[in-house]
Amino acid sequence: MEVRIAPAPQPAVPPSAPISSELEVRIRKRFPNPEGSFNLNVHFRALAGFTIVFGASGAGKTTLLDCIAGLTEPDEGRIAVGGEDFYDSEKKRNVAAWKRRIGYVHQDLALFPHLTAEENVEYGLSALNATERRTRSREMLQAFRIEHLRDRRPAQISGGERQRVALARALVTEPRALLLDEPLAALDRPTKSLIVGDLRRWNQNHRVPILFVTHNGEEVFALGDEVIMLDAGRIVAQGRPHEVMRAPRLETVAHLSGFENIFDTTVLALHESRGTMTCRLEKGEVDLETPLVRAEVGSRLRVGVRAGDLLLATAEPHGLSARNILPGTIRRLVQRDVIVSAMVDCGGTEFEVHVTLAARDALGLGPGKSVWVVVKTHSCHLMGV
Amino acid sequence: MNWEAFWLTVRLAAVVSALLIFIGIPIAYWLTYSRWRWKFLVEAAVALPIVLPPTVLGFYVLVALGSRSPLGRWWESLTGHTLAFTFEGLVIGSLLYSLPFAVQPFAASFGAVEPSLLAASASLGHSPVQTFRRIVLPLSKAGLVTGFALSFAHTLGEFGVVLMVGGNIPGVTRTTSIDIYDQVQAANYSSANQTALVLLVISFLVLSVVYGLNRYGLNRFGLNRRLWAVGPWK
């Protein structure tokens, strides 16, 4: 089932970056999750820069990071940073976590509750003398804009501030690699993008491999040089974000990357000269023109469409290049943040369409309104059932 | 009121609970972090003094300290006298007798420290021993205070072990509980009543301090956990 969407392009390494900062992981490990026990079985390299590890919960993301950090021992394989082995089952080598110098920001941040923000940041610097320790931690607190919080305990600061303290605490030690386990999960969007900016700036100077675990598709595009998609302990796709996220062929991948619309269809006709085919939705008499794939008439396929790739029109559009123009009725509108989800009933099948607040107001969208849903052929992603 | 017996008892309790801090911490550390499959046997052995009749414990300690045991002989060659019926002998007996009252609160508080904090400390370059000193111990203050106070209070009130190991030598091994027994035997009820009341009040005060600290005092340091109860309370 291992599918490589693209021949895993390696991000270009700037000539100045030391080649030795590469993280190499080839491990196997059984791990339990709520649905039983899985085999984590992965092999990849991560160069300096962000590599996103993307997958649903229980896919093995945290187990993978724990193995790299040395908190869990794999069953077999090899883990190396910059050519230095931290773990090698053949050589029976397993360097203790506290000797690896790998920064790890845990999902729950794990700030020391009895220490102030500054003491937390200084904690990893105990090899330095007190003055140097103070200088380094002050610099880092400044870089993350939390200098004013230095005498507060974790319980006395906000979630975003705690996140910054945790990042500063890991980065100040100048780790050889950085592992971030959903460090932005609990934050609102503006705070998130500020912290991402801080992280990027830090990494421009340090150029270490950063594994960034998330199950949020947006973060993949915001951060990723390279994406590794994990499902049930295996790498199901790897490559640049747009390659991995835009063209899924496996249903697991589709679910992961967030298709709001997933329909079961039957292939009605193939148009090989046009490179398309017609698929009929199972729930109603609606046909979609989709890209041609290797399929036979009568076979069943699943179609995934992103809500953000759909258009709404209040009058029947003419002269459009899009092949699918489906009449329907708005059932309800749900506002999320600055996006409005319109649920549109087209002949018994419900489509979720994302429009902006401005579009909702300009078109006077509301429940009961007749609309046309416009679906581009190439917005239809086909998957096996 | 027999003040000689009273001060002897307080001295014994103070020495024993202070020593138990040093003996109890390594044992509790091992009990918390060891993954040895037979660990539960050690846990049961440490808890034995809670259920064992003090006379049984005292009897074995007496035999172990006597001049026929290797330990007794070694001590005798070192000091010229046996351990039995001395203050030192009493200390050894009491250490065993009060061990679980120190070790169990210690272990409960060590175990209540979030594993993610230990992982974070390791990732920041600290060895397990450094992590224990800088993270686990400071976060276990409430448990350390509880263990100290409980073993102090428990030693104050012991009777059977003292009688077996120490006998009843004024100024050396006659503690308040023995004194009360003597007074009652001599039908000297008012004196027994006085001493008993003092013991009751002191024990109550010590326990009040323990529970009060757990409830209110340590909260201010962000240590709002009830540590005598086993398990991670948040």
Description:
The complex is a heterodimer of chains A (about 375) and B (about 230). Chain A has about 375 residues and is an alpha+beta fold. Chain A has 2 domains: about 20-100 and about 175-255, 3-Layer(aba) Sandwich (Rossmann fold); about 260-385, OB fold (Dihydrolipoamide Acetyltransferase, E2P), CATH 2.40.50. In chain A, about 20% of the residues lie in helices and about 35% in strands. Chain A has a 6-stranded mixed β-sheet, with helices on both faces. In chain A, a hairpin with a 2-residue loop joins strand 1 (about 25-35) and strand 2. In chain A, helix 3 packs across helix 4 and helix 4 packs parallel to helix 5 (about 190-205). Chain A is globular and about 75 Å long. Chain A starts with about 20 loop residues before the first strand and ends with a strand. Chain B has about 230 residues and is mostly helical. Chain B has one domain (about 5-220): MetI-like fold, CATH 1.10.3720.10. Chain B has 11 helices and no strands. Chain B has helices at about 5-35, 40-50, 55-65, 70-80, 85-110, 115-125, 130-140, 140-155, 160-165, 175-185, 190-215. In chain B, helix 1 packs across helix 8, helix 2 crosses helix 5 and helix 6 (about 115-125) packs across helix 7 (about 130-140). Chain B is globular, with a radius of gyration of 20 Å. The interface of A and B includes residues 71, 98, 104 and 106 of A.
What are the main properties of this structure?
heterodimer, A: 385 residues, alpha+beta, Rossmann fold, OB fold (Dihydrolipoamide Acetyltransferase, E2P), 2 domains, 6-stranded mixed sheet, 5-stranded antiparallel sheet, 21 strands, B: 234 residues, mainly alpha, MetI-like fold, 11 helices, disordered C terminus
- Beta fraction of chain B: under 5%
Q: Major sheet of chain B: size, sense and barrel closure?
A: none
Largest interface, with counts of residues having CB < 8 Å to the other chain, equals: A-B, 29 and 22 residues
Low-confidence stretches of chain B: 220-234
**What assembly state would you assign to the polypeptide chains in this entry?**
heterodimer
C-alpha termini separation of chain B: 45 Å
CATH topology of chain B: MetI-like fold
